[in-house]
Specification:
mainly alpha; about 0% strand; about 500 residues
């Protein structure tokens, strides 16, 4: 059987999310210029609370759609109805909890004015949670282009609507109420999708099966989300809003990571759950890993080398103190080259995910709090990265056992070694440009020059690597994979490991 490679199948998602990312990426760049540092810190605090809540409140119901809908068994309307109804109820309860905790949150962040944003913060928590199944339901149902278009339009509306109140002088309150309006529009879109899918329809037997799959993942996310944001909460509880703005911008998540990781992981999970997909587990995992690594490895190396240009270019020299934090935080992009969560969900290792995320939270808490105590903010982010590396290595080992492969087989080590060397070598012109004495005066121009120089060197190394085809064909093959996937040769039969 011949099928499109994972990168090519994820193409519509990448294009739409790439366009949406350009819009979303520009929002914080405008906010740091429209708001003073303390107000920007309040914005980051509100967003941290709402986003942490909505990630935990899904309880695995949204992710379960990637497991059940690809089966095409005629029960899609039931699975979608059950997911939407459950996350809506849980989201409403979470929103109530956020509102009731408004004064405690204000005390934790040493920001009394945070309580003034309690109502929009609570409603935002509800709308974000209740509408999470929208794009995943379309994608898992095979409507890749519609899912991509929905995401793109949603981002356009979010950015445009949220900026209008700021430009009209309504401040942060107007900004967050515009976010609420965007959430209500997404709720309406969810209702339209539900009706078009043949719902609402609930099958209590299927709901029980869906919950049995989803809840262990949801319980695992109750550990995973605090683990991911624990360093932010820890630092936020020890500094004021302005210092928190410095730290949070150092931990700035450059959209290219999620832009690549999410679509490729989602397609990988769907492919593994298709008939015969599990037998090709190692082959599909290699494909997803290489498509991520060919971008994320050079991206990480370039950002470390160009950190002193990147931060002032995007956020002004007011945030220069964020540069050392950024150089550590950007290492998280390396971990995103391994689509581990998708493989674990696809293989149904619910109990294992619960256990590993619990220990991940414990290890992170110890290392982050220790680092914060002895080394301040840089120690907090360093502890987070060390914990992430330890636990993701353990997760990769479990996937290796699940696929019945050896360590030398689970990753395309030779290709990864080549990409790592190319990524480091390409940093040479970036370092030279960053040290140029006029770079600090015009960091944006210097950043463009450094990025262009890096790209020329990196693509040149890929193009002139020995191999079949023209230089352009070799670059396309590295970036996109084979145009079509032929069924690989014999692979080890998957060994079903016992959930631990």
């Amino acid at each position: 059987m011949h099928k499109k490679g994972i990168m090519r199948q994820a193409g519509p998602l990448l294009l739409a999310r790439g366009a949406a990312t350009v819009l979303g990426f520009g929002l914080p760049l405008l906010l740091v210029r429209l708001l003073d540092q303390a107000s920007f810190g309040v914005y980051k605090q509100v967003w941290l609370v709402a986003s942490s809540a909505y990630l935990m409140l899904q309880m695995g119901l949204t992710a379960s759609l990637y497991y059940f809908l690809p089966r095409r068994d005629g029960n899609g309307a039931s699975y979608l109805t059950q997911s939407l109804a459950t996350v809506s109820v849980i989201g409403a309860l979470g929103a109530l909890g956020v509102y009731l905790a408004r004064f405690a949150l204000a005390r934790h962040f040493n920001t009394p004015e945070l309580a003034d944003f309690a109502v929009p913060m609570a409603i935002l928590t509800f709308t974000m949670t209740a509408t999470t199944p929208l794009e995943p339901a379309l994608l898992a149902g095979g409507q890749v282009k519609l899912s991509a278009a929905t995401n793109f339009v949603s981002e356009i509306v979010r950015v445009v609507v949220s900026l209008v109140p700021l430009l009209l002088g309504y401040g942060l309150k107007g900004f967050f109420w515009a976010y609420v309006a965007h959430g209500i529009l997404r709720l309406a879109a969810c209702m339209v999708l539900l009706v078009r899918s043949g719902g609402p329809r609930i099958d209590w037997k299927l709901f029980g099966v869906q919950l049995a799959y989803a809840l262990p993942f949801g319980a695992a996310i109750l550990f995973d989300t605090p683990q991911r944001s624990l360093h932010l909460w820890a630092v936020g509880g020890t500094v004021g809003a302005a210092a928190f703005a410095i730290y949070s911008q150092g931990c700035f998540q450059i959209p290219i990571v999620n832009l690549l990781y999410q679509p490729i992981s989602e397609v990988l999970q769907v492919r593994l759950n298709e008939p015969g997909g599990r037998a090709l587990g190692v082959h599909l995992f290699h494909d997803a890993n290489l498509r991520l690594a060919v971008i994320l490895l050079p991206f990480t190396a370039c950002m470390i080398a160009a950190g002193s240009l990147f931060i002032p270019a995007l956020f002004t020299h007011l945030y220069d103190a964020s540069v050392p934090i950024f150089r550590v935080a950007v290492l998280s992009a390396l971990f995103a080259a391994l689509p581990l969560e998708a493989a674990i969900r696809a293989t149904g290792l619910t109990r294992y995910m619960f256990n590993v995320f619990f220990w991940k939270l414990v290890v992170t808490a110890v290392l982050v709090l220790t680092g914060l105590h002895f080394f301040g903010m840089i120690g907090a982010i360093s502890g987070h990265m060390i914990a992430e590396g330890i636990v993701r290595t353990a997760m990769l080992d479990r996937i290796r056992k699940e696929f019945g492969s050896k360590w030398r087989e689970i990753l395309p080590w030779g290709e990864l070694r080549f990409l790592a060397i190319a990524s480091v070598v390409s940093c040479a012109p970036v370092i030279v440009i960053a040290q140029f004495r006029h770079a600090a005066a015009k960091p944006l121009l210097a950043l463009f020059a450094a990025g262009a120089a890096y790209g020329v060197v990196y693509l040149g190394i890929l193009a002139f690597r020995p191999g079949a085809g023209t230089p352009v064909e070799r670059v396309k093959r590295m970036l996109l994979g084979a145009h079509e996937e032929a069924a690989p040769g014999p692979v080890p039969a998957p060994v079903r490991a016992q959930a631990a």
